[in-house]
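Chapter review. Work through the record for 3'-5' exonuclease DinG before attempting the end-of-chapter questions.
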Amino acid sequence: MNIMEIGTKQQRYAIVDLEATSASADAAIIQVGIVIVENQTIIERYETDVNPYQPLDDHIINLTGLTDQRLANAPGFEQVAGDIYELIKDCIFVAHNVKFDANLLAEQLFFEGYELRTPRVDTVELAQVFFPTLEKYNLSDLSEALDLDLSDAHTAIADAQATALLLIKLQEKMRALPRLVLENILTYSDSLLFESALVIREALAEASLDMAAYDELAGLVVRKWQSYGTERRLSQDFATNLALLELEERPKQMIFAQAIAEHYADPRPVFMEGQAGLGKTYGYLLPLLEADPDRKLILCLPTKILQDQVYQQEAAKIGEIFHINAVNLKGPQNYISLDKFYETLQREDSNRLINRYKMQLLVWLTETETGDLSEIKQQQRYQAYFEEIKHNGDIRETALFYDLDFVKRLQDKVQTSRLIITNQAYFLTRVEDDKAFAEGHILVIDEAQKFFLALEQFSRRTLNLTETLQALEKRIGSGELALLERRLMESLSFELSQAAEAYYQGQGETLSELTLAKIRQDLRELESQDVSDLAELFLPTYTDFWFSQHYDRMREMRQTDLHAARLDFLHFPDFLPETTKTYFISATLTISDQVALPHLLGYQDYLASYLPIDKPHNQKVWLLPEMPDVSQIEDEDYAHIMAGKIAELTELAVPIVILTTSRRALFALSDALDNYHLKHLCQDKNGTASQVKKRFERGDSSILLGTGGFWEGVDFAKQDKQLLVITRLPFDNPSDHFIKKLTEKLRFEGKTFFKDYELPMTTLRLKQAIARTNRHARQKSAVLLMDSRIVHKSYSSAIQEALEQQYPIEVKDFESSLGAIRTFFETD
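Structure tokens for 3'-5' exonuclease DinG:
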């Protein structure tokens, strides 16, 4: 085949999948599946078993379903080699991970006297380029995401059929793209494996010339911002709005929505308490969007994960039905800078992965309306490139891509959208810089019990000291500084390095007063943009400074952080511009008899509203009294004991979510499960929190290990049966700066930190975690709390009584609990 001619006419593709005795170079073929595609149509199929003349191992038998008995009756490869060669010799060879299939088949054909010289195309890389927002690119995940037929995975013909359908999807996607985009992609296509670029060249001849949906500047093609026209008025009747959204009515949601509407006229801020699972998001969005069509509604959520979830689900549904424009607002660093990306396109990179990212982003820009880089799920393979193209918030009219700048477009969209969805951390940053952002609008702060912590985090600053010292040394050695400026930077670098060295040697984690005074003096005299981050960290506002370390998984090295904080607590009413109405939605308003959430936020005059709490009929909690005291045992030993229990729990054959309270405990338990050969998904080991959650819900594994946001911010609604295992009571870390600060505040007010704050907050975290696995009436959720302190400690009765108000509880040994949980799941 003359490769130079490829791309000038429709080609014939042979999509090949092989099953073999192993994945090694000396494997023997045991099954061949071939699908011929021409003109984006499947025109021929070929399949055969092949006798390898050797026994199969158990892994291959389980994977493929083939047996020695079946293959004993199959032809040897020498009997089918001629037919296979004649079928594919004039085709382009296509496979999912083409290197293995093409090399193995070519070698086997060569031994039989046939030399296969066809061009090769790899659908893995093409899928990564042309479907840039997917998380995984194995055939089974692509089949699910793109609705390909893979009904009998790991048989050669089924995998070849699915790969053929994938190729056709890729061809359709390429032809639908603007021609200019394909031309730009081909600029970097030499970085693709083998001859995969041939499919792109062929599509180029038929690529779309329609640019109506896109903007183009300097060769970059960007999707136009879409917006709804005239809004459709919501009904004053909440049930009618639900019906229009095709949602079921829930009695408690109706009560909640009615209370939201009734409290709108009250001038005071409203604090509303309601248990998880009542459908509160629609419960406040619909009545408040209806209340005043001329007001914007700002929804402030605790995490970016929840922010994206509400934007993609509830806001999208409301926009589709009622034509209400919504914007998903984050900090500038979350978005791509078109100017920075364009600069990388102008240079030659020898790194094949970077060039593939360039191709991927060229496709993504034709799809994204936000420019939010989190939509690209495989950044971790070369995070440094994405750091390079992030936006820094600087929008200049002189910039080449000023008119298309995503942060500018975002700001424009804020002005024309009635629903603004953001996160608590960014909201605080935004209103500090721009008081008018919230002025006169309706504000809803959801998960308000976390807002107090967000307010505290806002009063801190953190700097990566490792990177800062490296940048200082580079600047000092540049030879571009005046003598005085260089001396001041040297002094600054010395003081910071000495303080960090003392921290490494265990001589203290805080800065001394003398060191602090020297650093501030140097910064006052420098007045240089090179040290602007340090200058912000050492503002007089901040009085406490301390070090910590974290492990950078990308660079595979430990990094040192320097933190700054203020001693006083921020009062939100002093911080917030005047709004039309402010709602705080919380799982709890009363932390304890002595501490209430409104008071922690600085409110004295407010309206508190409570909804009745019902015990769910489809959820139950078991407590284990015989587990060892976690405070008296090493993490690894406790993890080993838990892993043994979890191995027995797998006999229930239901999905299991396991929560730990720290990354150290998380990884210790993961290692222990590995020792038991229990397949599981571990947060930060097998992907981010959102990635492992999706894989878990997809059924990649029946065991999920999580920490952090899994306690409060992640719902599990897809499995009808689920077991939640809580390994430890979620107490705060007593060495945390905020906890120390709050302890002093409560002591000054004559209150007790543990009794009045820590214990009730721990109970609240337990309730929230438990509620996350009970999201609809058809779901049955069992909860196993393995920390025996909830049974034996002096404070155990307080936690148990609080939980019993909401959940049925049993205290049983493990074997009895296992039987009771089995009965619970088997009972209708």
